[in-house]
Amino acid sequence: MTKYVVARLLRSIVTIFAVISIVFLLLRLMPISGYFEPGTYERLPESARITRLHALGLSDMQGNMIHPLVQLGNYYKNLFTKLDLGVSLGISQNTPVLEIIAQKAPYSVVLGVISTLISLLLGWTCGLFAARYKNKAFDKFIIVYGAIVSALPSIILILILQIYITAWTGWPMIMKQGQLNSWYTPIIILVLTSFAGDALWLRRYTVDQINSDYVKLAYAKGLPSNKVFFGHILRNAFTPMAYSLPAAFILTISGSLLIENAFGIPGMGRFFLMAITRRDNNVVQGIVFVYVVLGIFSVFLGDMLAAFVDPRIRLTSSAATARPDETDLAGGADNG
Questions:
Q1: Residues 286, 85: contact at Cβ < 8 Å?
Q2: Contacts for 217-221 with beta carbons within 8 Å, 24 or more apart?
Q3: pTM across the whole model
Q4: Which residue in 20, 84, 194, 209 could disulfide with 78, CB within 3.0 to 4.6 Å?
Q5: Mean pLDDT by 10-residue block, N- to C-terminus, for the chain (336 residues)?
Q6: Contact present, 217 and 333 (Cβ < 8 Å)
Q7: Which domains does the chain have, with CATH numbers?
């Protein structure tokens, strides 16, 4: 177990460095004008161009360009010695990127955690009922609803719901500081557009378990239906869901691009899009760094949680990548 955890941590760290380095170097392949807001490069005097390029770490004060690999080394040096991701040169002049992220992240976390909790509880409940009463009216409704939500473009669905919900309830269409009901509509929309996915995944895993041989054996032994369903089927059906559970909460800090922009929520998603459109490369690099670290850490925690939920998943070099459908989960019935 310890050997596996250490190996996974080392592999995660290498992956983080690889992704950050690739993104950093790809940004350095842009033409020089790409480091300036649209239409400003041609209007700026040469001295102003050099000042901005130097502030981005691309050149020295004489305007001589620095090799990208040297820039990458300087970036990591500042990151490890000063926890410095640079300063914003477009959105918030000369403000440290970490300071801006610290200001924006709480909005995304509040929105994401609340909506994720509701979505998971609602989705799992619907998924269990759909699986328990397969091919009944409720099961068919969940399948159709999930298909509709998946088929419609997200931006269209969000705008339709935003217009109708705010019209029916009178809640604000744009988020207002200090006004609690301005949070209601984006949370409801996030739940309505995501809970069906959770329901359908759990339904699928539960139905797979219901059709397993060990369940048929349990029924043949005369075990009560509720004991088989809640004691064996659900335990095995929830194991695959454990892989994505940490990511569902940890990645809320990344924000929702569409929701935050539609409602004017000053969170990470909206901030990231602004940084891209304003060509604030230090901010883009900083946010990508946060996203990569959180994403890889979430995958690592997902593996740990799955092993905790079901110890039969072996965390060894030969089974490190095994998923529940690749692992023998059929021993539960004999324990009844």
A1: yes
A2: 217/333, 217/334, 218/333, 218/336, 221/333, 221/336
A3: 0.77
A4: 84
A5: 77 89 86 76 81 81 84 88 83 84 89 90 91 89 92 88 91 86 92 90 86 83 80 78 77 76 88 85 86 85 75 54 41 42
A6: yes
A7: 98-335 (1.10.3720.10)
